[in-house]
Structures are given as C-alpha cells and as structure tokens.
Prior knowledge:
Layout: H1 22-35, H2 47-62, H3 82-94, H4 111-122
Amino acid sequence: xxxxxxxxxxxxxxxxxxxxxxxxxxxxxxxxxxxxxxxxxxxxxxxxxxxxxxxxxxxxxxxxxxxxxxxxxxxxxxxxxxxxxxxxxxxxxxxxxxxxxxxxxxxxxxxxxxxxxxxxxxx
Length: 123
C-alpha cells in the first residue's frame, strides 16, 4: 500500500501491451473492473513515518544529534599461499601409503575360534 506522498503519476509508467495475449489482457481488465472502487489516499496516514519525523525534528531542535562511530572493519582471513599449499598436497600424495597387514579372520582365543572348536567336537 502506498500513501499519498508516495503515489506517482500515470505518465511515469509506460507499458508495452504488444507482448500480452488478448485473453490475458481481457482477463486483467475484468479483474481490475471487479475490484475497482473509489480510492482516497488522503484517508490513510503513515503514523510510523510521522512519529519518526517528529522524533528527528525534536532532536534537531534540542541539538541532540549523536555522531555515529564508523563501522568497525571486519577481520580479514589469513591469506594462504596457494602454491605452497599445492606443493604440500603433492608431497603427501607422493609418499607411499603404509601397507597394513589385514588381520586374520581367526585370531587365537577369539570367539570365532572357540565356536568352530566347539562345533568340531560335537560333530
């Protein structure tokens, strides 16, 4: 919604209706006619804007205008030398991977060994 001082004249807007299909244009006209009614923007008041303007005016009259501090500069992240990072990455990739011996499935004293011994005795 706009208040009276925010409404612009009709001459400010030019539309190109050549891109609109005739059915769409007719529907739009029907819709506008259906919701059309008398509009009196003077009936509406922007109380928030009025109160802010009143507050600013009173502060100016009393000379209570506070000087704002400049915004603090955001902390910058450290710059990483991409060439050094790439070299480290390549060195890590060139190192041979540690080969680990996979553990045997039947380690002595484990539950699987005890079960298999028990099954052999029964069978």
